[in-house]
Amino acid sequence: MSLTLKATNENLPPNVIRQLAKELKNLDESPPEGINVIINDDDFTTIFADIEGPAGTPYENGVFRMKLLLSRDFPHSPPKGFFLTKIFHPNIATSGEICVNTLKKDWNPGLGLRHVLLVVRCLLIEPFPESALNEQAGKMLLENYEEYARHARLYTGIHALKPKNKSKTGAISESTTALNVDKSSTASSENTPSMPPAVSTSTASRAFGTNLQDQNPTVSDPAVGAAAARKKDGPMASKVPVDKKKMDARKKSLKRL
Questions:
Q1: Residue 212: CB partners within 8 Å, gap ≥ 6?
Q2: Across residues 235-251, what is the average pLDDT?
Q3: Which residues of 76-112 are buried (b: 16+ CB within 10 A; e: fewer)?
Q4: What angle do CA 74, 102, 38 make, to 5 degrees?
């Protein structure tokens, strides 16, 4: 990243611009834990940062956008801090204004932007209800911490929750699951060999030109078996008596001779 001095920063003295350019470059190359600074080369008077909610606090898993406004007197006068993401916190007003001593009576021109951002993130770990801008949050923190934490988690879940990589939830997940089931069942039916259709006896007989009953030696019905035997042996049985009569006639003629 190259930070250049541009005319749009004319609200700040040149020496302050050079100092800010150096600080912002350092923050970009070596960011503080849980803090991501968004740099605009054209305007150093407004500095944005995303602050991750510290683990073990009601702000965990949240990302909170804030901004620092630098006046022409910076660094002799402290910057003003505002949360742009809605948050339930004793030291942050409903308008987003941040109340912390570092940005007021304890300000020192030599503190620098890194220190300011770290103080703001530490405020999410240890609020100061005695100097509350949000009186409801301050009173709740002093009287009933569990109720305060519940409210803070609710705000975090609604306004500051980190976007997840897997965004398929609810009906989208259900429709995707149903789609996968349909695909798997279709693939299963395609991979399963289909059974050949049943062929009737008459169709098979016509196809092969044979009587399937003749190819089955086992006959379960005796009447059917006898009828089949008579049909099969009929011509031969009627032929045998005719030959016997002819033989008897020949014998009689031979005796006469």
A1: 201, 204, 205
A2: 53
A3: eebbebebebebbbbbbbeebebbbebbeeeeeeebb
A4: 60
Write down the pLDDT at residue 12: 86
Q: Name residues whose C-beta falls within 8 Å of residue 157's C-beta, 6 or more positions apart in sequence.
A: 62
75 upstream amide cis, omega within 30 of 0? yes
Is the Cβ–Cβ distance between 70 and 44 less than 8 Å?
yes
54 alpha carbon, distance to own chain's centre:
25
Q: Measured between alpha carbons, how far is 62 from 12 in angstroms, rounded to an integer?
A: 33
Q: Where is pLDDT greater, at 221 or 48?
A: 48
Q: pTM above the 0.70 mark?
A: no
Q: How far apart are CA 65 and CA 59, in angstroms?
A: 13
pLDDT single digits (tens) 167-176? 444 433 443 4
| Residues labelled catalytic | 99
